[in-house]
Amino acid sequence: MSQEYHCRIYVTLRPSVLDPAGVAVQSGLHQLGYESVEKVRIGKYIELTVTAEDKTQAETQVDQMCDRLLANPVIENYSYEITALETTGGHS
User: Fold this and answer.
1) Domains of the chain with bracketed CATH
2) In contact, 2 and 51? CB cutoff 8 Å
3) pTM confidence score
4) Per residue in 34-63, pLDDT tens?
């Protein structure tokens, strides 16, 4: 029986990759008086729901989605959290 899973995906630039957006935000924060900010890195946060037979299959799907579309594995890292959604107990 299939189960729905809620997925939270975090995509960030690899540490070795220059982050011009992060530099711009850091500069803006300094101009606003927040001189204590030393490093800013900008990333992406993605939420989605997948249907899978089990959590392992859901993880496989999310890995494939990240590798193929959601992240650029050459310059970005990704991590995710997957939780099973509660079922209502009703039958379709």
Assistant:
1) 3-84 (3.30.1280.10)
2) yes
3) 0.85
4) 999 999 999 999 999 999 999 999 999 999
